[in-house]
Design goal:
single chain; 36% helix; 6-stranded antiparallel β-sheet; 250 residues; alpha+beta
Length: 250
């Protein structure tokens, strides 16, 4: 295991309390945290438990929770440990730890969900769709599949993410075809009920039709977006789909 080093004591108290800084950086972390008697992951868990039992739920606890996650402590493991200790250290203390731990392990949950969604399809999720982020409510990803003959892109939406109302314009031809490849989502045309989309579903969108598409509240969603060739084709982005309207969906 890589040797643990620390300089927080010297940075914060090096001039004001040099002895304390020395004990913190060189003894507590330099020697104790590098003691081979406990593996690093176990030591991180023990430290979190000790801080929780002492009622310390400030930045110190946050640091050690983050440290525990980096050491490989999973969301299930930290949840089980805090739940167990709650019976001995107190229920309010467990609530305080959980409120902090939820934020720290949220990234793990999202990454796990993304990986599970990616395993359901043959197309890549791609990179964050930053170039069009202003036209989406929530986070989306974009993977170019083909740029020859016709443009084909795999668009992936995180749960509850959807794009704004928009219109594909063209003097002749144009429009778009959506092919759902994974997850559960919706397509809706202006003035009509939303249509659910599941893997294998296809939606043909004619030029000039105001519409939106995106994920269901509790599901990732991916579709291939096929650009239909047209004369003087363009895309007009409009207002976002309101939370009120979106939350009415089943």
């Amino acid at each position: 295991m890589e040797k643990i080093t620390q300089d927080a004591g010297r940075k914060a108290l090096g001039e004001f309390a040099p002895d304390f800084a020395h004990f913190n950086d060189d003894i507590l972390f330099g020697e104790n945290w590098n003691n081979p008697g406990l593996d690093h992951k176990t030591r991180c868990l023990v430290t979190v438990v000790a801080l929780m039992a002492s009622g310390i739920t400030d930045s110190s606890l946050k640091y050690h929770l983050e440290n525990a996650k980096k050491a490989g402590v999973t969301r299930k493991e930290i949840a089980a440990a805090v739940t167990h200790v709650a019976f001995y250290a107190g229920w309010p203390k467990a609530w305080a730890v959980f409120n902090m731990a939820k934020e720290i392990w949220a990234t793990e949950d999202a990454q796990t969900a993304m990986a599970a969604h990616a395993s359901e399809m043959v197309f890549p999720i791609g990179a964050p769709n930053d170039g069009f982020a202003q036209y989406f409510s929530g986070k989306s990803y974009l993977a170019p599949i083909s740029k020859e003959q016709v443009g084909i892109f795999n668009v992936t939406f995180e749960p509850a993410c959807r794009n704004n109302w928009h219109i594909h314009h063209a003097e002749r031809g144009g429009g778009q075809i959506l092919l759902c490849v994974a997850g559960h989502g919706y397509y809706q045309e202006w003035g009509k009920d939303a249509v659910e989309m599941h893997p294998g579903d296809v939606v043909n969108i004619s030029a000039g039709v105001k519409h939106w598409h995106g994920a269901a509240k509790n599901s990732w969603f991916s579709h291939l977006a096929v650009e239909v060739l047209g004369v003087n084709a363009s895309n007009e982005w409009l207002e976002p789909v309101s939370d009120e309207d979106y939350n009415k969906l089943p």
